[in-house]
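Hi R.,

Here's the chain you asked about this morning:
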Amino acid sequence: MSRKKILVLTPYPVGCAPSQRLKFEQYYASWEKEGYTVHTLSFVTPAFWKILYSKGNVGKKIRYTLTGYLRRVIHLFKLPAYDIVYVHLWVTPLGLPGFERAVRLLAKRLIYDIDDLIFLGHVSEANQWTLRFKGRLKALYLMRKADHVITCTPILDEFVRKYNKKTTDISSTINTEVYRPKTDHALRGTPVLGWSGSHSTSRFLHLLAPVLRELAKELDFKLLVIGDGDFQIEGVNVEAMEWPGTGEVKELARIDIGLYPLPEERWVLGKSGLKALQYMGLGIPVIASAKGANFRIITDGENGFLVKTPEEWKNRILLLLKDQSLRERLGNAGRVTVEEQFSVIANTDRYLAVLRDE
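And here is the predicted structure, written out as tokens:
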């Protein structure tokens, strides 16, 4: 029996973007084991990825983008050889859904994977100049025309169902074989408050700047920022680093308390709560904004804290810093939540059901 072939069309290179590597990419091995052959073709090259979220380099970004379009033309000729075409976010980033229409025409079966409310046209601060060209209609077209749509939050799934009844809501998930829980919640030396993300989302952490400055006047702590090496808050002891690649889990494990603030913006309602899940997968107690998917991940006071005001942020941080048993209890409960609902093991069969069209 011949193996079925899956072509995955992604925006970014394999192993780089959280929306890919902590969503469907970590299931490739299980797809292969099930009898599928998986190939991935990205729009952004590794060289482009290195400068994509940096300020400036507009000339290089334009050149890399044009090259990406040329490669996508070549990719289109490969589509008829595959049993399934799996598209994440978009086929090309700008303009009308011309390439998306071509993929629909050529694909035997089309699965669309959408992460965040990308049809709202949000872009990173470093690439604001692209907003007027952003292809917002691409996501809507793929929602309508795909044979199946994989979403990542209840709110996003509800929206997509207006256009396509065949959807499956699968959150970002954690590989619990890689993310091993902390066994020691004692504070030794300077306590570490931590945040993980990217240049495009680190502005959310600045929402806590007044709270963190107040805390810095009262006690000694370090703020570890993973994913934005330029991040600083005046008056706060900050250790900032770029995304450490394969060393990400090791750096995350240094965190004593995980922070996950979100702004009052509509598009964040489509976020799957990935940062909270990463902390929880490592048994790290998490404090998160009471918004969106965080409500289905965190039960306040049981496996983490959900907060709304600056006062609540400060009080919960102080509470966790002072109480080792509470850190341990919330951290352990968060790990159980991930194992039971948001792990790769718990969601493998859900992905396979979509591939099989069950």
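One quick note: Residues 121-131 have pLDDT under 50 and may be disordered.

Cheers,
M.
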